[in-house]
Design goal:
InterPro entries: AB_hydrolase_1, AB_hydrolase_fold, AB_hydrolase_sf, Epox_hydrolase-like. The chain is α/β, with parallel strands linked by helices. The chain has 15 helices and eight strands. It has helices at about 10-35, 45-55, 95-100, 130-140, 155-170, 195-205, 210-215, 220-225, 235-250, 255-260, 260-270, 270-280, 300-305, 325, 330-340; strands spanning about 55-60, 65-70, 80-85, 105-110, 150-155, 175-185, 285-290, 310-315. Strand 7, helix 13 and strand 8 form a beta-alpha-beta unit.
Amino acid sequence: MTRRHSTSEECGPSSRGMKEWWLHVGLLCVPLIAVYLHIPPPQLSPALHAWRTAGAFFTFRGHNIFYRDSTGAVGSTDVVILLHGFPTSSYDWYKIWEPLSQRFNRVIALDFLGFGFSDKPRPHRYSIFEQAGIVEALVSHLGLAHQRVNLLSHDYGDTVALELLYRYDHNRTGHLLINSLCLSNGGIFPETHYPRLLQKLLKDSGFLSPVLTRLVNYMLFSKGIGEVFGPYTQPTDAEYWDMWTGIRVNDGNLVMDSILQYINQRLKHRDRWVGALTTTSIPLHMIYGPLDPVNPHPQFIRHYQNLVQRSTVSVLDEHISHYPQLEDPTGFLNGYLNFINSF
């Protein structure tokens, strides 16, 4: 009796047909995925376009840095520099820009490298030290190197401000002459800072991070950012899109993992930055939205008051969260102007 041996031909047409079908599906999916991962950035809204048009650029080590510089109150020589947070931009300050211009002679804000309308090089080792250098370079570019300035910061900008404070107190070359510092809702203490899940994934995923940054889309972004706003102070659809558009300009979504290394830098250089905060003699203030899940109440503010006893504090309404200047611009502005007018 002759034994039959099965052959590939006997497995036959149906098997080959399935393989060809999956091959066709794969070939069809590749360009679709490629299109999805390279979705062009949204068009600038009229408001965002007006913000960019009102600004200018200067060059720092070959990179273009966006900034706004408005001349405001006549008869005042006071200057305020606004330092924004992650992952947004100088546009975070738009709700209080005009009121600040009524109090200060100069109101200045910039987009840090990797943010907003500024360049977003990759690969690049983003650092708090470099961002502080950019602020110093901007002040020099604007002819304010010998002018005392007031710093108003939020989130990521808080840590940049602390590096500038350290340089000021240690008389480093090129340092700013700081008149006062007001911080707001930033993870200045690693021990009371709770990054969001997406932030942890992006900063710690190693070789997978470039893949994850390409998968972050508007829906993921808006869900994540909405979680750090209060339930009654959520951004409008237009505000969500403006934030997302600012990120997508110059493919900023692709550098988020690199920028997020600032969380590790805060831990590594805690003594330097917290030490600057606890030993400085310049006027200090903290404006705090207590519903903040990133810097939770009361743990964060108690820790701050215990360590920074010279500082005054404004705690806003209990429903205000991580973006107080956007969620409660009136309360934020009142807290800041009460501080700035107190010395």
